[in-house]
Design a protein that fits this description.
Number of strands: 0
CATH architecture of the largest domain: Orthogonal Bundle
Number of domains: 3
Largest sheet: none
CATH topology of the largest domain: Topoisomerase I, Chain A, domain 4
Structural class: mainly alpha
């Protein structure tokens, strides 16, 4: 059955205003020259004011700041869900599923690491798809087995890597099923979902390369023919060459901390493409999803900048992970 998407003039006008409020390159350049507290004061003059004021970000740690930024992102998601109608509301909810999967990952990692429930909650996103009672139940679990038992979908695996891979697989299957119901003019987003999945698959290959106990193919999610070719390559250098030839990275293969640099570079290319989506198809699902991608990127940028200032990371590194529209 096809999903009918009606993008009303009212919704378009509201999204256009929200788009105009996104931070630009000049704002990031200013923040690079600021101290930690100066950045927080600047954010109080933006759409982040409510969250900066309601969370004690000036005295608490990085987790509290991330909680505030996540809360702002969720507020934008809820607002779009509220002002959208019919099929467009389903699009927003489908996008929100990515944060539900992140919530489960955070809970599972926390149980594995013995992190307190209060600290876990600061890293979670408010859900559009599942009730608060589900997350309360999951947070109350003391074992990973207990979490899996109470999930409304089936996830398999024994290690953290396997569990997270299974969550990615579930998210991918749900998104592909939803995209299959969209009309042709709304399917620009399909290409970006496919690219996002390809980057995830390539990162899986890089992380498991040379580890004999893993059969890499088992952990790939609907891999393309290009991704399958990478699996059989004997060295990371060969993989980088193939990626560069396919214009999927700009690296040469001799960079310091190559695997980290490669992951960042591919992520940058993906995020740049996602930002372009915001300018495609003004009266289609592509426009609203383009805004959501751009908002997500903005929150990532702010986390990188604030963490960089708080932890004293090299300015060059922080600049390398910031993507602007």
């Amino acid at each position: 059955m096809s999903t009918t998407i009606k993008f009303s003039p009212y919704t378009f006008a509201r999204v256009a205003v929200m788009k105009s409020e996104l931070l630009g390159r000049d704002s990031y350049d200013r923040m690079q020259k600021m101290g930690y507290n100066e950045i927080l004061r600047l954010l109080q003059d933006t759409t982040y004011k409510a969250e900066i004021d309601s969370f004690d970000v000036s005295t608490e740690g990085i987790n509290t700041i991330e909680h505030a930024l996540n809360a702002n992102l969720c507020a934008s998601l809820r607002k779009l869900h509220r002002i959208s109608q019919g099929g467009m509301r389903l699009v927003v909810a489908a996008f929100g599923l990515r944060y539900d999967m992140e919530n489960v990952k955070v809970i599972v990692r926390a149980i594995s690491s013995g992190i307190a429930k209060e600290d876990v909650q600061k890293l979670m996103y408010e859900s559009l798809n599942y009730p608060a009672t589900l997350w309360e139940t999951l947070l109350a679990q003391t074992s990973i087995e207990g979490v899996l038992k109470h999930l409304p979908f089936t996830i398999q695996g024994t290690s953290l890597f396997e569990l997270e891979n299974s969550l990615d697989r579930y998210y991918s299957s749900r998104m592909n099923a939803f995209i299959g119901t969209l009309s042709a003019k709304n399917k620009v987003i399909a290409g970006f979902v496919e690219h996002e999945l390809e980057v995830r698959n390539i990162n899986t290959i890089l992380r498991l390369h040379g580890i004999k106990e893993y059969n890499i193919v088992d952990y790939l999610i609907t891999p393309s023919s290009f991704v399958k070719r990478l699996v059989g390559m004997s060295s990371i250098s060969d993989i980088v060459t193939a990626l560069r030839n396919a214009k999927k990275t700009t690296l040469q293969g001799d960079e310091k901390d190559l695997l980290v640099a490669l992951e960042i570079d591919m992520e940058q290319i993906l995020l740049t493409k996602q930002i372009r989506l915001m300018h495609a198809g003004l009266l289609t699902a592509n426009y609203i999803l383009g805004y959501l991608f751009a908002k997500e990127i903005e929150v990532r940028n702010l986390k990188a900048l604030i963490k960089g200032k708080k932890l004293g990371l090299p300015e060059e590194f922080v600049q390398s992970v910031v993507v602007s529209r």
